[in-house]
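The records we work with from here on pair a chain with its fold. Here is one such record, which you should read through line by line:
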Amino acid sequence: MEQMFTTVSSKGQLVIPVAIRESLGIEPGTRVAIRQEGTRVILEPETLATKLRIIEELCGLTAGGPSGTDLLLEERRRERKAELAKDGW
């Protein structure tokens, strides 16, 4: 996309050009995250597409490790074994 310009108002507001809003799915009421990276200001809309991208990035992050369910089941088995031993089984 070609470079576009906008002007910051006296209240610190700026208008995101319509072409950019449309391409990113930014509609009235869309939350926009803002952060600084060096001398750049990064705006990232919190749209469904953005949320899905984040989920995809996180998917498989813990692959290869034990699942939370497996850890909880193993802990419960140890607790049950201790309970049975305490009761003389």
